[in-house]
Structures are given as structure tokens and as C-alpha cells.
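Minutes, project check-in
Item: structure for the 266-residue chain
Input as provided by the requester:
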Amino acid sequence: MQKHNNLSTGSGSATLKIALGNIPESFRNRIVDSYLDLKRRGRTSDATGASTSVSSFCESVLRFLQETLTGKHVPFGTHVANFSDACAVLAQVPSSVTNESQRLIIPKALLFIQTLRNKRGMGHVGGEVDANVIDLAVAVSMADWVVCELMRAYHQFSLQEAQSFLERLASRQIPEIWIIGKTKRVLMEGLDKKMQTMLLLYGEISAIAVGSLFSWVEYSRLFNFKRDVLEPLHEDRLIEWDRKGDTVLLSPKGEQQVEASTLTGG
């Protein structure tokens, strides 16, 4: 199975599209783009905006499963008339053709997410208690699981690499990070450059190029950034700095420090 070393340097979107590289591009791009948009909406509790992302994500994955399991799918641009019936059709595909995850479990997960959107009125005010925020959190969590399942079946790198990627993807939420195109900025005030660097790394599911980090943190000089920020963090085992590849990855110890110092207000 082919390995992709550039997984460590790309953006979240590019990395996911590589990781799901065995899924045809017409499906893959829509799945990844709608998933990442849903994740962004989840981080800002934007239930209204997430409604469209949920629908796009669920229908994109459904169409891919239709094509994979039956050889045909509802064309993009055409409304899926009955989502529940479409999922039920997949359940009728002989088990010898595919696995239980694709045939039964993923469709049920998609139907649950779509039902939250349609029947609970995600993004709309109603009832005595506003359930939008918790419904959105559940939808995002379920979407994480669906993407993880797709990666298990369609990853293009070793099983060990895929498992590590899945764990990071499923467990990480990007906190207090503003994304502007390919640029990222820490919005949380009062953090020194070391903590900003770790916070930016915490929000990533793979190693990041040093040049990107340097740009995001806006340090004075690259040499000084490496000497005063990366070197001490690496020595303290808070990050892993691959000097040959010039990439940086947050360590488990670094994750704990970020969570203790910033995410929990400690």
C-alpha cells in the first residue's frame, strides 16, 4: 500500500483528500469540503450554517456508497427524494458484495445525522430548551465517526499510519483558531509564542511545516523562531521537530499541557 510522506505538510483539506485518495475525486472533494465546513460550524456553534453542511455531507457520502455498492447514484444537483428509503436500499445489497459498515452502519449513522437536521429543526428556535448546540455537537461527532470509517476502508497508507491519523482526527477539536485561507491565527489572548505554537499544532491532525508555523505565529525571524521556540519545546518533549523534513508535530505531553493550560482555563 502506497505511503504519502506529504501528509505531514499539507493543509487539513489536502491531508484528508490524500488519506481518502481511493475514493473517486468527484465524491471525495464534496465529502471532505462539507465535513470540514461542518467541523468549522461546530467549533463556532453555528447551528444555522451547519444545517447546509450536514445535508451536503450526508448526501455526498450516501451517493458514494450508492455508486460503490450498486454501480449508480443519485446525480449531484438532484435532490435525494427519500433519504431513509435510499439507506434502506443499501441494506438490501448482498453481504457478499461489501462489508457491514458500508451496507448498514454508515447509512444508519447518516440517517441519524440527517434526522437531527430535519426533525429537530437544527438552526431553528423551538421548544422550551434550545437543543441546537447539543444536536450540532452530536452531528459533528457522528460525522467524525463516518469519516474514520471511510478512512479505514479507503486509506492510502499503512495500517499503523491510518490508525494514528484516525485517532488524532476523531479526538481533536480546533480551539480558538481563526482560519483565513491558508493562514491561521490564535485568537486567545495572553499566550506567549511557545503556547501559540502548541495551540496551533493541537488543532492539526498531522505534522506541520515549520515555515507555516513561523508565518502563523508571526515571529520576528525564522532562525530565532527555531532557536527560541521550537528548540526548547523539542527538548522538553512537548513537540517532535523533524529537522530533516522541517516539520513539527505536537507530542502527547504537549497535548496535555495545551489542554491543561488553555482549553480548561487552567
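Outcome recorded: The mean pLDDT is 83.
No further action items on this chain.
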